[in-house]
Amino acid sequence: MANGEKEWGLKLNRVKRSEMKAGEGRVAIKTMVQMLRSNAAINHDDQRPLIPMAHGDPSPFPSFRTAAADSVVNALRSARFNGYCANSGLLPAREAVAEYISRDLPFKLSADDVHLTAGGKQAIHAVISSLAQPNANILLPRPGYSTYDAAAALSQLEVRHYDLAPEKGWEVDLDSVEASADVNTVAIVIINPGNPCGSVYSYQRLEKVAETARKLGLLVISDEVYDHITFGSKPFIRMGVFASRVPVVTLGSMSKRWMVPGWLLGWLVSTDPSGLLQKSVFVTHICFAEAYFLYWLLLALLLSAVGAS
Description:
This protein is α/β, with parallel strands linked by helices.
């Protein structure tokens, strides 16, 4: 460098535009939302208030309130949660998550199957980074949730998109899945209920996804952040129902159902009665811890949900 200065070795992990594949130079959803909310897109003669529907944040609406705040206050006043806790999270809270998920499954989960995270996004980054290895790739839905693409890029894990079929209610296009997978594919991500399309997969469709993943030898990562937030006649079915056929990692959080997205409480659950994930040492790579007192909130709200069911 000039003046004899040493060049800094620090480099950003950034893919050059010249190395991007055709079709990857897309406009971000956030940019489109900003354009729609700009002065050019708003009719100023219309006095109706704008409803923010792009962020998935239920907390601005004052008509919905939960017991979350009381649980946090009680936990703080108890002075029982000022120290460190286990990296995988408070044991009673993990037991509560296991019970919450198990009520929708044909078998019982334990606290050992649960890792607590700082929200759903950390759960995404945890599972994606644990799968990263040279030449590996992962299947993501298109349309999908962009955090998965970002997490894969950060871990240098190649992304391959499979299509959702709009004419079939945005169901997984299994032909697209099989065409996208190869011997280096480590996992497939499904989002159910769907984000951004709102699809709710039937038992039959999830069963076909499980059979396809089993045939291809893929771990299924099931994003169920919107679990049980469904309308109409189609019920919510967990992907873990089919874990006896294919290993499933379920991602979830308190954000949507309990309307506290800013508190960043999430979980990552291994549903693997055959023990394939343990054999691959996948689970041992996951090690996080959230604010201790917030785990007590998680415990209180999940126990109330299980008791009400």
